[in-house]
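Help!! Second protein's tokens look totally different from the first
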Amino acid sequence: MRDQVDILGVKVNKVNMGQAKDRVVEFIEGGRQGRMIVTPNSEMIVMAREDPELRAILNQADLSVPDGAGVVLASRIFKDPVPERVAGFDLMKELFSLAVINNYSIYLLGGKPGIVETAGQKIREEFPTLNLCGSHHGYLDKRLLEEVINEINGLEPDLLFIGMGVPLQEKFLAQNLHRLKVRVAMTVGGAFDVLAGRVNRAPLWMQRMHLEWLFRLLQEPSRLGRMLALPRFVILVFWELIRKRFGG
């Protein structure tokens, strides 16, 4: 079985949560630095169709997990299914637990000033023995960028979680990961806002009904324009299915 499925030009690994966690452990224990994990969802895939640079970055990642019900549905429509949705936020929390067990060190980068610090406090409350070695907000000018890179390299964390939003976080890593002494870097979008309590995550029943997008929209009406990518994704998936079926 092939390890990846192509969703509208973006390659996604066919992994479940357990397999994704195992892959991360392999990356960390393998000794090589600079592994990259991305979490494409429907909105990101639509964005990548119009942004060749973003698409190339996603397709060059070491692990691309299916973050979104739309990605799972599309894989099934294309008869090349991924096992399940692997939400980036959930994978991040699972990796916190793994870090406690294996004594992996973690650095948080991203968010607005104050947010990532609050997120770090909340993480320490939930995982008191976690080796959270450092954090910094994501508003970096040239001077701050060099300071943060030097700080990270001095700490050499096993896991770097970067939350700057799409596509900034992916392009940041593409430009700077080779300069960073980290084992694994994972993009986490707005996860720090959720961890800090600034944004609530959808209740479990809405997650199970694939309505997280609606919950997020109700909290942040300004996201309406971005949410229009979701119906567009559906149209593009069915158009691609017709093209493949009829060879058009």
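Here's the second one for comparison:
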Amino acid sequence: MIYFDHNASTPIDDRVLEAMLPFLKNFYGNPSSLYRQGRICRSAINAAREQLAALICAQPSQIIFTSGGTEANNICLTNLSPHSKLAISAIEHPSIIEPAQHLKSLGHDLNYLEVDENGLITQDTINEIALLKPDMISVMLANNETGVIQNIANLTCQLKNQSIKIHTDAVQALGKIPIDFNQLGVQLMSLSSHKIYGPKGCGALVFKNATDVKTLFSGGGQEQGFRAGTENVAAIVGFGKAAELAKIEFSERQSHLLNLRLILEHSLSVIPGLTIYGQQANRLPNTVMIGIDGIDGEMLLMQLDQKNIAVSSGSACASNLNQPSPVLSAMGVDPIRAKSAIRISLGKANTEVEILQFINQLKSLILKE
């Protein structure tokens, strides 16, 4: 199979699995226990925290392990006090949009921040935020559908005197572009393991100050008292190993992915009626979202699946809605054209040969060659 859906999930790296196996088979003790088995597990969690912190230029004490990016996003929004104001970009992941809508139903003031045709927050939008004076804003670092990268550091710099708590969903950015938590200037950041060749079911919330986070689960002192419950040691170890490998291999991976993306985009450019969304913006090195005149995106996805090629029609967390992508709608794309969109997200094991095979199959399907 040609797998071009790495923004949805990545295959677990063999080296990550190898690091996890001892904690699935031999070191099964509770990390809160004081005997040797427990201490080994606790030490492994601490090591993973250090590995992840090194990748994002943060302190290990600033990291809370969660069940994934969705939980981290939800934790951030539950920090809002009653009737406080929330603003989110119009291109956020469903795990931000849906909790935000729920908060609105509870009486919170919710505003959506507009983006331009490239999916970027504009200066006018930043000026609007300053006037709205929300208590919290959430703007993703890199969009999961288009790959467009926001200049979060510029946003936080302009709003630094506004007393606004700023969160960024960095799930798709992790391991693909450099991330320095302190330089971003945010108070909260969400991450996920299975986007960087780690296991599913593990993520992290990164915080600037302890006061930025409220306890979500009570009943234990795990994760510095912020998230009660026995830790998923094997998954956390896997996340740490994946982060370590992402840091070591960062330049190699980024160069490889960007080279593949440029080959892919060059090959796509000869197809009539094809648009690459966000092409004029700074994007992730692995992500290309396209629209093709007169083509139904989900039908094309299924046809490619029959050819043993896996792509996506957008966010995997919203793939069953059969609606135009909210991201493309926010960018001003016509609804009918938006429904033609498919996303190709490349991974470190993909090759130029696979790109050419994909292009040949794509042409045969849409040009009826």
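Reply: Different proteins will give different token patterns, so don't panic. Residues 250-366 form a domain with the Aspartate Aminotransferase, domain 1 fold (CATH 3.90.1150.10).
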